[in-house]
Amino acid sequence: MFHCRENELYDLNRRYEKGNFECIIVYGRRRVGKTALINEFCKDKPTIFLSALNASSQENLEALSKAIYEKSYPGVESAPVYASFDAAFAEITRMAREERIVFVIDEYPYLAKADKSISSRLQHIIDHIWKDSQLFLILCGSSMSFMEYQVLGYESPLYGRRTGQFKIQALDYKEMTAFNPELDEEQQSLVYGITGGVPHYINKLEVENDIDEALKNNLFNTSSYLFEEPENLLKQELREPTIYNSIITAIAGGASRSNEISTKMGMESAICAKYLKVLLDLGIIKKETPITERGGKKTIYAIGDNFFRFWYRFVPQNTSAISAGKIERIYDTLIKQHFSDYMGLVFEQMCREYLLRYAEDLPIILSDVGQWWGTDAKEKKEVQIDIVGTPVEGKEYIIGSCKYRNEIIGVNELELLKHYATVFGKGEKYHYYIFSKGGFTKGLQELAGKGEVKLLTLEDLYK
User: Fold this and answer.
1) H helix intervals, 55-171
2) Residue 276: inside a domain
3) What's the CATH code of the domain at 120?
4) Is residue 408 within 8 Å of residue 420, measured between CB atoms?
5) HSE-CB of 19 using CA atoms within 13 angstroms
6) Tell me: the pLDDT tens digits for 112-126?
7) Residue from 425, 414, 407, 416 nearest 451 by CA
């Protein structure tokens, strides 16, 4: 079943109805739903769909030849092979004169790797033939760095040929409720914390009514797809998966600065930096810097993909028990009881998404929302602010805290926020927000009634 992506689908169809040549670039990390979007768009349209192979140029030419032949003879098992890609493209040109055709090259980086001249060939035919045709060309890829530098980048032969681009992101916490609408807010947030809003992982988790059973059967199970997904993805994407696995493990274990990671790896900093960049390009890890500050000594690395963070938090240390089929014995004590602690960072992410996308009647127009950390000079200790919302203009800021705990939050949390605001020290006025799963004391609610603070529960985020 196709969920979400309505805006992207609408825009693709709007462009299609105009009848002009289009060269649309669709890219995003693996499993995020790019091909599902394209298939939904193409399902009622004449289409030539090439799923490029991580193979030789000749094998890809054979696949393209079959895709072209299937357009006229659906279900065909074999097809004549064109003499060259130019000959295949010439046939597509002929077909596009007769009707509006969508031509999809999925996993375009595989084709470009197999035939180094393919981008130049596409550039030439776009410039001289297709730009005046009714062809609807889609180039899709999962290699973020390749698509951004070798397709969209200034030095690419295809630079300037695109008519539109779609960077497909994981779903946010509220969008993904479409997959399991029967779940309550706490269950929805946990599914988000496990899958990171990646549609493929949501589907593979197969939550029906019981998340615990879904996890036991579809993640903490050696025969399940998700159990080996991080390792399989690293093997699929990278030449040295073992090294990358060790780097992710180091970050999951608390090494956050580049020198800490390289030391833990026993690797020179410059070499480690190259591996880190690859993981950044894949979206598996991310760089974090205190908002309002530029990168530098305060830059840290964290796992940016929630599924990877969840997997590395709970699977490796329990692999022996899982492999022995003893998940029932350890699930409650070694896994489930730590969910609340794990969900702390996920809740912060949800609260930032709420402020940027869903909150109404905000006191300022937000430029960005992030976290901030720095040194409290008076108390000589490091402080961290969960949420800092920066303004488009002016010096009014939102300062917030996020508590994913069952305990009720009191006035002392507001006082702490006010103190942290003085340490932050960049604003002339601050608006305080406190997000709490467990609710608030009567005293704090009274202050909220006077306008001193905005209070939001987990349920409020889903309204």
Assistant:
1) 57-72, 85-98, 108-114, 118-128, 144-146
2) yes
3) 3.40.50.300
4) no
5) 3
6) 999 999 999 999 999
7) 414
Domain stops at, among 309, 342, 375: 342
Position 228 confidence tier, pLDDT thresholds 50, 70, 90: very high
Q: How far is CA 315 from CA 80, 203, 207, 212, 304, in A?
A: 48, 20, 19, 15, 17
Q: Please state, in angstroms and as integers, the Cα–Cα distance from residue 223 to each residue in 229, 320, 362, following that order.
A: 11, 14, 48
User: Do 252 and 193 share a domain, yes or no?
Assistant: yes
User: What is the per-residue pLDDT across 24-45, written as a single tens digit (0 to 9) for each?
Assistant: 999 998 899 999 999 999 999 9
What phi and psi values does residue 169 have, to the nearest 5 degrees? -105, 165
Contact between 119 and 150 (Cβ < 8 Å): yes
Task: Give dist(CA 229, CA 363) in Å, integer.
Answer: 43
Based on the domain organization, do 133 and 183 belong to the same domain? no
Return the number of other C-beta atoms located less than 10 Å from residue 381's C-beta.
9
154 and 204 share one domain: no
| CA 316 to the chain's CA centroid | 23
Cβ atoms 315, 342 nearer than 8 A: no
**What is the token pair recorded at 287?**
């760089």
Half-sphere exposure for 196 (CA within 13 Å, toward CB): 22
In this prediction the pTM is: 0.91
Question: Is 450 inside a domain boundary?
Answer: yes
pLDDT surpassing 70 at residue 1? no
Measured at the CA of 342, the angle between CA 261 and CA 306, to 5 degrees, comes to 65
Give yes or no: residues 328 and 425 share one domain: no
314 in a structural domain = yes
Same domain for 195 and 76, yes or no, is no
Q: Which amino acid is at 128?
A: H
Residues 6+ apart with CB under 8 A from 337: none
SS3 state of residue 352: helix
* Residue 28, C-beta contacts closer than 8 angstroms, at least 6 positions apart: 34, 142, 144, 167, 168, 169
Residues 189 and 350: beta-carbon distance below 8 Å:
yes
Q: Is residue 94 one of the residues assigned to a domain?
A: yes
Domain C-terminal end among 167, 186, 217: 167
Q: What are the tens digits of pLDDT across the range 168-179? A: 999 999 999 999
